[in-house]
Amino acid sequence: MNRFLSMTFRISLGLILAFITLPLLVVLVASVSPTARIVFSPSLWTTKWYGALMSSRWIDPFLLSVELALIVTVLSGLFGLLAAFAVAYEKCPGHAAIMSFLLSPLSVPQIVKGVALVLFLSSTGFYTLLGTPGLIMAHVILTLPFVVRMIAGAMFNVDKRLDLAARVLGANRLQRIRYILLPLIKPGLFSGMTFAFILSFNNIPLSVFLVRPGETTLPITVINHLEYSLDPVLAAVNVASLLFILAAVFLFERIGGFSTQIHGGSK
To answer: In the beta sheet, which residues pair with residue 215?
Structure first.
């Protein structure tokens, strides 16, 4: 019986991994295909489509997406840290209701949030904020619940006896936060910031309502290109974006060591 369950688990795991990776392999092959039609002949594969990515048509949106993602990551990390500290660590009055409010954007579809932000900016006379300022605002609203939840989860697991011991030894509030709390919650903080970076960089439903000519993010540029042409350049863009995201995740993990929070080990 145990052998049957083990075999079933391995087969299921293999099917799940295949379901996830096979589409990625198709995109990878398409990005080196010599024609718009996918060719599975290594002798004919080419990298010319990656060379096309060096034009300003793709570089400018990529740089804007990176800049936007970095700003959103920092702001979400800062706001999420402050909110989680008040709600999860200090447990301010009404902390349960405040946490529900902070997580409430998760229950609203992104398209609805995008329309609501556009209507809000236009009705209040702040229509000029459409573009990068509006994108930052929208992406922070999108990513903040994830950051707050992950940091709060890390803070719930902090042993407050450590804070009490530091207080007895004469450490002030700032020292206790800097030398005890922040190192303990660093994996949760950086895991939340990593989610914020990925969500902001890849976002379409919110961004499509808030971009303006000359300030278009990479995902929106891909959608616009897809309306008029379906060629391997799009596959090359997706492969390059995937490699960039993987590099960013690796960098965040090296700094924050958030895999220790997932596996329960130590860095």
So the answer is: 212
